[in-house]
Design brief:
Layout: H1 3-16, H2 19-30, E1 34-38, E2 49-52, H3 55-69, H4 76-85, E3 87-89
Antiparallel strand pairs: 1-2, 1-3
Bound molecules: zinc ion.
Zinc ion is lined by residues 39, 44, 46, 48, 65, 69-70.
């Protein structure tokens, strides 16, 4: 689904729903705590930031990023270290 289609969907949702419910849904989405890892904190010269809803998801994305961008395979030891670098957003 393209961004345009998503925004179209939202404009329809906003038009169809009472604005009260839409703002409640938006508040709910904004209140989901996110986990964040800065690639630089893991020791890479990189401005990459990884954000996900769970620590496990951040680790999975970080491992994919490390192998694709930095040609580094994340070992279990590295994963343990990376876990300590994950911060909470909002
Ligand atoms: Zn990176």
């Amino acid at each position: 689904m393209s961004e345009w289609r998503i925004s179209e969907w939202w404009s329809i949702a906003i038009r169809e729903c009472r604005s009260k419910y839409v703002s409640e849904i938006l508040n709910l989405l904004n209140s989901i705590p996110m986990k964040k890892l800065k690639c630089r904190d893991a020791g890479f010269d990189c401005d990459g930031e990884i954000e996900a809803a769970t620590e496990q998801e951040v680790l999975t994305l970080a491992a994919a990023h490390a192998s694709e961008v930095h040609q580094v395979t994340v070992t279990p030891e590295m994963a343990e270290h990376i876990k300590t670098l994950i911060t909470n957003v909002n």
